[in-house]
TrEMBL record:
This is GTPase HflX. Its cofactor is Mg(2+). Residues 137-146 have a biased composition (Polar residues). It comes from Levilactobacillus suantsaii. Mg(2+) binds at residues 215, 242. The gene is hflX.
Length: 431
């Protein structure tokens, strides 16, 4: 646990009449807190468009300088992505370190990244963010912006050298290098995925806004239907608790199996560099047979969050995967739960009946290729009986003179394998 006190900051936003302004500012506070900083003052300015030179109007810049000096604050966080010169001018005008929204999100990711792949992905996104910001006199500022101070800091974990010495060419070389390393890791991940595809298990991906409860749902499902040795995934009431993708196998009492994945959450204005860098992490969603969009039903901004999630999914090229929407955290609202209307569920991840309803819905969606059939298996082929007992839903077993008679619900592919033992026609099973 980080025991150092949170860095005090001032947040600044321009209100140009957009409907989502208040929500964006509230979210900015949550992002600030996720970066181990705390908002001591929020400054808003009504302005139709940002000042091209300084973002805020000139008078406001002076006011910010005064507020910062009075509050003893040396960091200002801006609600939008700024141009390199806006950052430079604002820093000079306010005598503070300026972090824009994109820089803030990149810092959070840099602090969260654990695995080699996550670190490389964040590093790539950060280098790409820095490249156009590397103007001659800006390098010093850049060092301040992404390096020292605040809750973040790439200097130690980023490209490994002081940003001040980093020429454009060095950054470009680093980008090439990181890309190459990521490609190698991705190939390994591709191989794993291909392996799983060969297992032919249906796959379901949990997607949605950060903090919606994806990991909590994953854990609830794994606890009941996972393997004993499966680890619980990390859950915390903070933005971007999860960065990497975990995949777990679920086995239901009727022997039906599926793969469930949990991945990084989304937020509005997720930097495009990050979305691109995390494309391979998010590929699990692109390759899924079904998406489960998890929504924080208790959040007043849930519609905007859903719009952001759906837009981000389009950005990573996920357009035609069927989706079930789970309105989670219903326990924090007055709405009765669990309920289902078509492909929408209202539930709570902390409630057993909710998990039952979710499982029933998921099974209905992904196990349509099942058939029910009667087999008569000679005693000499006992291994087939053993296989079916392990891999299929055995509904009835009778021992007869000619062998073991089983009534079994099983995937079409297994049915085809054991066709020779069938004694009556299979009846199709829709669920
Ligand atoms: N009351 C209530 N809290 C919930 C429920 N589901 C999740 N939470 C809480 O919401 C917070 C976020 O949950 P996570 O499962 O970490 O959310 P996530 O979607 O994985 O978030 P990221 O990994 O940041 O994308 C945690 O504090 C959970 O305990 C629920 O149904 N009811
Ligand atoms: Mg999570």
């Amino acid at each position: 646990m980080d025991e150092t006190p949170a860095t005090p900051v001032i947040t600044v936003g321009l209100n140009s009449g957009q409907a989502t302004f208040d929500y964006a500012m509230t979210e900015l506070t949550a992002l600030v807190e996720a970066n181990h900083m705390t908002v001591v003052e929020q400054v808003q300015q009504s302005l139709t468009r940002p000042n091209p030179g300084t973002y805020s109007g000139t008078g406001k810049v002076e006011e910010l300088a005064t507020i910062a000096a009075d509050d003893g604050v040396d960091t200002i966080v801006v609600n939008d992505e700024l141009t390199p010169s806006q950052i430079r001018n604002l820093e000079a005008g306010t005598n503070t370190r300026i972090i824009d929204r994109t820089g803030l999100i990149l810092e959070i990711f840099a602090n969260r990244a654990q695995s080699r792949e996550d670190k490389l992905q964040v590093q790539l996104a950060t280098l790409q963010y820095q490249l156009p910001r590397l103007h001659t006199s800006a390098s010093q500022r850049l060092d301040q912006q992404t390096g020292s101070g605040g809750g973040g800091g790439f200097t130690n974990r980023g490209a490994g050298e002081s940003q001040t010495e980093m020429s454009r060419r060095t950054i470009q070389r680093s980008i090439t290098h990181v890309n190459r390393e990521l490609k190698e890791i991705n190939q390994a991940a591709e191989t794993q995925r291909a392996q799983r595809d060969r297992n032919q298990l249906p796959s379901i991906a949990l997607v949605g806004y950060t903090n919606a409860g994806k990991s909590t749902l994953m854990n609830a499902l794994v606890q009941r239907f996972g393997k004993n040795e499966d680890k619980q995934v990390f859950v915390k009431n903070m933005l971007f608790a999860t960065l990497d993708t975990s995949v777990r196998q679920l086995v239901f009492p009727d022997q039906k199996k599926l793969l469930l994945s949990d991945t990084v959450g989304f937020v509005s204005q997720l930097p495009t560099q990050l979305v691109k860098a995390f494309r391979s992490t998010l590929a699990e969603a692109a390759n899924a047979d079904l998406l489960v969009q998890v929504v924080d039903y208790a959040d007043a901004n849930r519609d905007a969050m859903m719009a952001t999630t759906e837009q981000t999914l389009r950005e990573i090229g996920v357009t035609d995967v069927p989706m079930v929407t789970v309105f989670n955290k219903a326990d924090l609202t007055e709405t009765p739960y669990p309920t289902r209307a078509g492909d929408q569920l209202i539930l709570s991840a902390n409630d057993d009946a909710s998990i039952d309803l979710l499982v029933q819905t998921l099974k209905e969606k992904v196990f349509h290729n099942y058939v029910t059939a009667n087999f008569l298996i000679p005693f000499a082929d006992g291994d087939v009986v053993a296989y079916l007992n392990d891999h299929a839903n055995v509904l009835k077993t009778d021992y007869q003179a000619a062998g073991t008679q089983l009534r079994v619900e099983l995937p079409q592919a297994d049915f085809n394998r054991f066709k020779q033992y069938v004694v009556t026609e299979p009846t199709s099973n829709p669920s």
